[in-house]
Amino acid sequence: MSSSGSVSTSSSSESTKSDRSKDRQIGGEGTSSGVVTSGMSMEVVREVREDPLEELEESNWPAKGGYGWAAADVRDQSSLFRWSRLLNSWLNCTPVISKGVSGDIVSLERVSAIDRVCHGQEGATEKFFYMYMCHFSQLHVRLPLDDFTMGVLRALNVAPTQLHLNSWAYLQAFRILCQSLYLEPTPYAFLYFYDTTPRRPATFFSLISRPNISRLDAFSQSFKHFKDGYFKVVVKEGGKAYFLNADGSPKFPLSWTNNPSRYKDMGMDELSVGDKEVVETLLKFVDKLPTKGLVRSGKKNLALFQKLRKEMAAKAKAAGKANVPNLQESVVEVHVHGGTKRKVELPPRPGKGKGVKKIRAALLGTLAGRAQLVGRRGRKLG
To answer: Which residue ranges are recorded for the region named Disordered (predicted)?
Structure first.
């Protein structure tokens, strides 16, 4: 366990103290003063919430050395979540663990005043990694990470916080798109669409869309205000199977690395048969698909989407797979920044018989995208 204060996924709230005594001196935990209003004396109590002394004292600890290979802005950026009460408050309103998974697989902990997001495992008695609050509040990542996501991090040789959030959005959108087409998302099929250029000193690692090949646009032109929102995810005994291999080694880099992988103009001959199937299917789309909105860039893509779904379902049935997807069900959830989730679909129009429902596949959608859909079709979202 980290020496800093910990917050479990079912963390208790910080106690709040105030002294309502009129004799309390200024500078104490609470202060009061007399105010005369219309001849009546009223007591005004100001409540001051203090942080634990051990959290305040950490600011005097010596800085950790040995990280000159990391960019200065990364080494200098402390976290808001060095205050346990802030982490508690945020956890109370943001889901972090996937539904149906025990919250005991990890412990979510604050970081000390001298911890930095690029720091490693030195001195730790348990495996841990850092995550940004934006991973969960904006990109809807949930723990434990799935095999595809961990595979991408492993192939890139970067820790979760080392991969820039715009690149995380590509990863999330690719996974959702593949699942909606009944394709198995694979790390190298994903990386086929991107180049990487590691920088020195090491800073946030970005995926660069390959011109005329990438099928997803950018989540944000400038992803701001995320660098001070990191906290510690400590792997508990019940979570080792999710994050660690049988020999105890991590399934992805837990800490920042000084040697991320370089990819440039990956060729089809470098892909496995399964990877090629994914890539060739996605290359059939005509336009770029909006990562931050609905996957609907014109009628050509919509018709192709329906056709591809039928083909993939037919393949699954022919292969004797027991779990053949039901094409009459919506396949993708729209994630909105307010934290709500809605499935988006339109039923078949009258006279179309048993035609497949027109699915509006949504990748990390926005309220604006939902409003646009309603305005165009005049239908309510399901």
So the answer is: 1-41
